[in-house]
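Onboarding guide, step 5: your first structure request.
Type a short instruction followed by the sequence, for example:

Predict the 3D structure of this protein.
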Amino acid sequence: MKKTVIFCAVVLALGLMACKSKVVVEDTSHFPDREIVKSSEVSEEDEEFMFDTINGWLTVGVTDTVVLNKLGKPDSVVYEGFMEFSGFFYTEWIYDGIVLDMESDAEGAPSSVFSIMVTSCNRYKTSRGVKVGDTKDRVYDRYKDILNEELTDKDRVFLGSIYGGTEFWCPNGKLKWIHIGSVAE
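The system replies with structure tokens like these:
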């Protein structure tokens, strides 16, 4: 019986370690349960999910408690409801210059950041110092070592994939918005 309990504990621990998500962040203080991958250490398998970080802490997976502590109450909240494709409930938290899509297991339950859209404001910068209004050349220069060349084109710079990445939209050579998260549904 004792050996069975120990075996189950070992299997559970190994399973939990295998399920850790990998994100590209520089400030790890808000992610004690995640395996952190530095940009220079990203393998081909991990390139599919490259979530950048805003202001050293805001990225996909951050809890609603952390968001409220750092940004305060949103200017407005839009309830989007239950999405069958994912099995989660969604709300949109709107702040000046940034929109956070939040997801939760149940209506009214604690939520976490599903995606981030930075639309304006110089106070929101990526892990490599890029902000809305910068030139596409600056964005490209800061991320050229980890960009997805297949998805990068004349109007955008893309990290990761459509299933989990960071997109910089740069029409006419100027950065209009930054999206972090999935663009596929």
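Each response can be followed by summary notes, for example: DSSP finds three helices and nine strands in the chain.
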